[in-house]
Amino acid sequence: MAIRGFRNRVSRTLAFPIRRLGTSAVLVLALIAACSAFAEPVKITFLPPPMEGEISLGVYDATGKLVRILHREAEPGELVKGDDGLETQWDGRDEQGKPCPAGTYRARGVLVGDLGVEGVDFIGNDWVTDDDSPRVRRITSLGMSASGTPFIIASTLGQPQPMYYSIVLKLAPAPGEDPEAQLVPEPATPSIRVPIQKTFDGLTGLKSKACAGFNDTEWTIEGKIVKQYSREVKVIRTLLPQSDDPPPVKLTVSENEDKIYVLYENATLQRLRGYDFTGVKPGGEPKVLFEQDIRASDTYEQIASELKFPDEQPFVPSPTLTVALAPNPLAHNKPGTLQIRAGVDKEGCYLATADGLPLTHISDTEHLRWAVLGQPAGSKSINVFDGDGAVVEEFQISKIDQMMAFDAGVIQWPGETRPIAAPLASPASAAKPAANPAAPLP
Length: 442
Fold this sequence. Notes:
The protein is mostly beta strands. The chain has helices at residues 2-13, 23-35, 300-303; strands at residues 42-46, 54-60, 66-74, 80-82, 85-90, 103-112, 116-123, 136-144, 150-156, 163-170, 180-185, 210-213, 217-222, 225-229, 235-239, 248-253, 259-265, 269-276, 287-295, 321-325, 336-345, 348-353, 358-361, 370-374, 382-387, 392-398, 403-413. It folds into three domains: 2-111 and 411-431, Immunoglobulin-like, CATH 2.60.40; 116-121 and 299-407, no CATH class; 128-294, no CATH class.
């Protein structure tokens, strides 16, 4: 409004003979005329539903299509208070900034009350256990620091370069369960142990996937099997993959302890497992230090088989869900329903109406790529999953009926008014008297 008012004032101020103005001035006045050639914004006054919450309001055309989002998750106090309710305005443009044709439009909205939003779990990436965990997407390399601490190099969301992380073991969450490993970011490249260059004749050709280990031994990856050799090139141990393991692709080994860390990988899964052979005789089973998975989740389809409803039934996504609304006393308490869907933007995951009016954010996670929602049979709550390519977040939303729809009335939009065509002027023609550039065609 401030810009439009400024232009109108300029147009009136410059409405004097311009016979002495040059080509540039004529073009400037023509631009001002074009900018002022639209009808004034339409004021919209409405009574919000009598419930605390956030207001989303949109303008719809005669076919019911949403053409403009006027307010999104706005507190009532953010809108202008008038004598007859809250006030806002529409400048006649659609969501892309293009002028809408003249016609009858309608303003409709939804007030979202106190929904129950609960973060349930992180799925698909064992390294991500809370909001502060680094969003590691893919491990690119393994190593052992000079102090004997294993580390990884990994691509991480929000980081332009690969990051170094030390692996620190945590106590097992429960008896009988494997200990958990967590990543500690390294502020700089760690001091890396330089592998001893050995000359085992029998290992020729395997050096690219071999690593010097404890007690003057060497570990190698040979196909799907990891083997430990003595200096005499005799197999000491054979480490077979588990039934659901991808093939082993990388390993790192401690020279001070009989421990080895193996990265198993295929197109959809990375599994890093640590083994401790301390005190284990050849042929014996090692102790598993930890096992951490990263599953591909760039799209919903990649991770769909891992998602479940709270009753452990497979999750079934719905493009839209129909939910009951709280009755609005200002609309004669008529019961109503609303079709909702899930969406993502740069601010996180949100609920929206099926026709695209955003209602409320349920997460503030950056870099999201997708979101889906579903409802277990017989449940009043809905479940939402969203993914950023590193991990999947699960949310459960209760009290979904704490929303009220409202109608803000009919809008008669006159459309834009057409200005007088302003031809490109030459210096000669600029010397002639000109009409008021702001004057519209009759």
